[in-house]
Amino acid sequence: MAKTLVIVESPAKAKSIGKILSRSYQVNASMGHLRDLPKSQMGVDIANDFEPKYIAIRGRGDLIKKLRDAAKNADKVLLAADPDREGEAISWHLAHLLGLDLNGMIRVEFNEITKTTVQNAIKNPRKINMDKVDAQQARRVLDRLVGYTLGPLLWRKVKKGLSAGRVQSVAVRLICDREDEIRAFEPEEYWSLLAHLAGRDPGNKEKFTAKLLQKAGKKYVVKTREEMDEVLADLGRQEFVVKDVKQKEKNRQPAPPFTTSSLQQEAFRKLNFAPKKTMMIAQQLYEGLEVGSDGLVGLITYMRTDSVRVSDAARDEAKDYINQNYAPEYYPAKPRVYTSKGRSQDAHETVRPTSVFRTPEVVKPYLSREQFRLYNLIWSRFIASQMQHAVFDTLAVDVTAGDYLFRANASMIKFPGFLAVYEESTDDAEKDPVSKLTIKVEPGQKLTPEKFEDKQHFTEPPPRYTEASLVKKLEDEGIGRPSTYAPTIETIQSRGYVVKEQKRLMPTELGEVVDSLLTEHFADIVDLGFTAHLEEILDTIEEGKTPWKDVIRNFYDPFEQTVEEAEAKIGKIKIEDEVSEETCEHCGRNMVIKMGRYGKFLACPGFPECRNAKSLLEDIGVACPLCGQKLTARRSKKGRKFFGCSGYPGCEFVSWDKPVSVKCPQCDGMVVEKTAAGGKVKHVCTVCKNQVTVDKESPGEDG
User: Fold this and answer.
1) Beta strand 670-675 with 35-36: parallel, antiparallel or unpaired?
2) Which of 56, 264, 279, 525 has its Cβ near the most Cβ atoms within 10 Å?
3) Which residues are CB-neighbours of 526 under 8 A, at least 6 positions away?
4) How far are the Cα atoms of 512, 545, 673, 676 from residue 680, in angstroms, in the given order?
5) CA distance 580 to 591
């Protein structure tokens, strides 16, 4: 029987596709790339017009032999790597290794692993798209030229083991710039004022709350306590009168279905998943899982995409589902069509379920908890994106008191529309108080101020980036592509340039030194505009408009000159270690504080003669609830921060959540910090689960 060999990247994908195809097909996995630039050298022949020197990856010899043998015994070979630049390049490298005809119809791709899609793709192979391959080669060579030139420079000038990359250096720059903003920030005092109002008419004692917004027709912000006292004294002499009552109907449109970036952001906000975790679980959902009678099936479309395009078939299926499960008015008069922003690669669809009739409830018994949560998020967002808008009744009541204007806002859902399924999260902080919608007052009506509620505030610096907000910033600036976000954020942490504290990214001293050096001597490399422009040029290579080696030549000549100048200008930079009071129990030296991948630790300065190192116990200013000794912050072997008693091993108290010094007012139990999805911090009693209000100045609190 004629045999066709199909090669994909992973065993899970091979298993899923093998179940779909007949016995006349053999499906093998390449385990990703089998050919790449060598790690031991630059691997780019600069003198020979930047020709890359590809070699078989070390340790993959047996697998390559196995695939070659399978290819020789097959009548036909089809390369079915992922449907993106990287997948195209993997296919091209495989064709070289297996001796396949590069002009043959040997490439197949599919956006989802379902029976119909896979079978149609297998029947319609195409040639390898060399424009896509060239775009990937250009990115790979550019990154190698930057990394293997700047890395050794940093080794010589700062310390061994450092690296610099085209995208990672920009990410570190963003984090360092934000830290500079925070340091330079000077808080400004301001006050808010709420008026609790009531109708004077005996027949209408309507009560509501309004917020001070304007004075003399302009936006007004009270700056000091003294100014607030003057305002309150002035208001005591004024008559409160309803100026205007506006009732409107407002529509809220659903968010578009997910791209890679928006999926990573929303999974962070709603599920507390880091981008790396989101992509790992999404890969599992895409490659296929056993789902009851459906067998092994891919549950979502390809998860690396910057497109919000939805196929006609998927849109029709969503329409059928909504009409079958909701009233007719929940589906819009015209099907929703979303357009992607900027230079998106629109060849692929959005991230969506492969079948909306495979609801979260149907698949839940077959998925792990984390797989279910992410699938539920993707499914809900997609269904909501195809539904009718939500309708709100809104009310705005303007009240004047002399020159002052107060406003009460209220809204109520009139028709839930897509909100019946899903509501997008935001990073916004507290919202203004909302009054009830049934305020029954009329223009000209006089009111009595029953009480005023004034509150002091201070402006806050811009927040440090979370992994999700950094992804959004990189995307907004046009830096990198969907496949690069998660690995970039992982790299800058593993290199010790950035650490994560309270789920926020902070630069280390090393990160700031490296960023300062690159900013001063390699401005283009860390310039957002330059890097974004380079991404656009890579896109033009994929579109067949620009030869890839032209891009490399135009980049390298000025880059090489800059490197030569930097080599001459930069002296040896020494990062002094902070000396601690703790002595090394092996040799008696005072231990120093060093920064590792998982944060600070203590090390003996006598290295390499003395290799003693241990965790840095950071006093958090809170007493142990069991024995009264100090609680300290530590790191687990995997780098996760936890809190334990300094009396260990005598006292074994430990907590993943940060304890604070305040006791629960209800039961006197221990109170800990918990960070909810979206980064909002709340304080919860570990005994009675009561939510507790904690002063920011309390010990154990980050100011």
Assistant:
1) unpaired
2) 264
3) 169, 170, 172, 173, 515, 518, 519
4) 27, 46, 10, 5
5) 6
Angle at alpha carbon of residue 571, lines to 565 and 575, rounded to 5°: 135
Interatomic CA distance for residues 441 and 206, integer angstroms: 7
DSSP 63-74: HHHHHHHHHHT-
Alpha helices for 46-129 (secondary structure H) = 61-72, 85-98, 115-123
User: Which residue has tokens 């306590």?
Assistant: 225
Catalytic residue among 25, 286, 302, 485: 302
463 secondary structure, DSSP code: P
Contacts of 136 (CB under 8 A, 6+ apart): 85, 86, 88, 89
In order along the chain (703 residues), what is the average pLDDT of each group of 10 residues?
86 93 94 93 95 95 96 95 93 96 94 92 96 96 94 88 89 96 95 94 82 96 97 96 95 95 94 94 95 92 92 94 95 91 67 96 96 97 97 95 95 93 68 60 93 94 94 92 89 89 88 93 92 92 95 94 91 80 87 73 87 82 88 75 85 89 86 71 85 63 41
Tell me which DSSP letter residue 47 carries.
G
Q: Which residues pair with 197 in a beta bridge?
A: 208, 449
- Count Cβ neighbours within 10 Å for each residue of 34-46 and write b for 16 or more, e otherwise: bbbbeeeebbbee
Q: Which residues are CB-neighbours of 153 under 8 A, at least 6 positions away?
A: 164, 563, 566, 567, 570
Is there a cis peptide before residue 463, judged by omega within 30 degrees of 0?
A: no
For residue 351, CA distances in Å to 56, 306, 311, 370, 371 come to: 33, 9, 11, 17, 15
Instruction: Enumerate residues 6+ apart whose C-beta is below 8 A from 234.
Output: 402, 404
Catalytic (active site) residue 302: yes
The model carries a pTM of 0.82
Token match 């995409």: residue?
Answer: 305
Residues in the chain: 703
Task: State the greatest distance between any 2 C-alpha atoms of the chain, in Å, as a whole number.
Answer: 98
How far apart, in whole angstroms, are the C-alpha atoms of residue 15 and residue 171?
37
Name the token pair of 61. 């010899």
d(CA 76, CA 123) in angstroms, rounded, equals 12
